[in-house]
Amino acid sequence: MNKISVVIPVKEEMKLQFHHKIIDSYQAFPNCELLWVLGPNDDGTYEDLLNSNQRVVLTNSNSRAERINTGIKESHNNLVLLNHPRSFLSHEAIFALSEVDCSGGNTWGGFTHEFYQSNHFALKFTSFYSNRIRFDQTGIVYLDHCIFFTRDIISEQDSEPVPMVDIFEDTLFSKKLRKKAAPLRIRETSFTSPVRFTSNGIFKQSLMNQRLKLKYKLGFSAKQMNQDYEKDLNLNSKY
Q1: Using CA of residue 121, residue 125, residue 126, residue 128, what is the dihedral sign?
Q2: Cys staple from 181: which of 17, 49, 89, 106, with CB 3.0 to 4.6 Å?
Q3: Residues 182-210, buried b or exposed e (16+ Cβ, 10 A)?
Q4: Domain containing 106: what range?
Q5: Alpha-carbon Rg of the chain, whole angstroms?
Q6: At what angle do helices 121-128 and 202-218 cross, to 10 degrees?
Q7: Number of domains in the chain
Q8: What is the CATH number of the domain that holds 161?
Q9: Distance separating alpha carbons of residues 167 and 149, to the nearest angstrom
Q10: Is 100 left (phi over 0), alpha (psi -120 to 50) or beta?
Q11: Tens digit of pLDDT for each residue in 131-166?
């Protein structure tokens, strides 16, 4: 059974309480080392994690990519799992990852995406596209699939394995990893909060996502794109 270092880049989590779902999902897995990498916050997340006996790494960074890289540096196991802060894995998913054969090296991938407690057809299509097209066909794995990788796929000299950009860091990280191997999609589920869609409106958020992808391809500023993405929600960073 693989030992797994789980890096969770968090910020202000009390309003959604998804961090408790993440904690609960790993309760039965002593082979998993959890590292909560916490950015600037004043909502009680730090105290709540400590009260839950979690290991917390404090940073002053407003960048999710920097928090992820900090967690990778602080982790100890060969197999690293990046747990999206508003996604949690089913028990079957964690067990499946613990049984993945990593002996060949250059192993990486993610889980099958599904929105938590949502049957809206647009969100079901979003997950289908994310799983079957973007992941399976192009090898781009978003963080809400909960990306995992073995350390041999990143260079020991690479102090910032996840590109230090404000948005689409998971896209750039995927492009980096797929040069060495195709990603493995584990069929078990990563459940993601639909909070952006329920807060902004499903179709409005869907259009925003497509607009941001177009801006990314056209080379727009990552900082400005992230400001648009985080507007009024401030889930990953604050503007």
Answers
A1: positive
A2: 106
A3: ebbbbebbbbbbbbbbeebebeebbebee
A4: 4-198
A5: 17
A6: 30
A7: 1
A8: 3.90.550.10
A9: 20
A10: beta
A11: 999 999 999 999 999 999 999 999 877 889 999 999
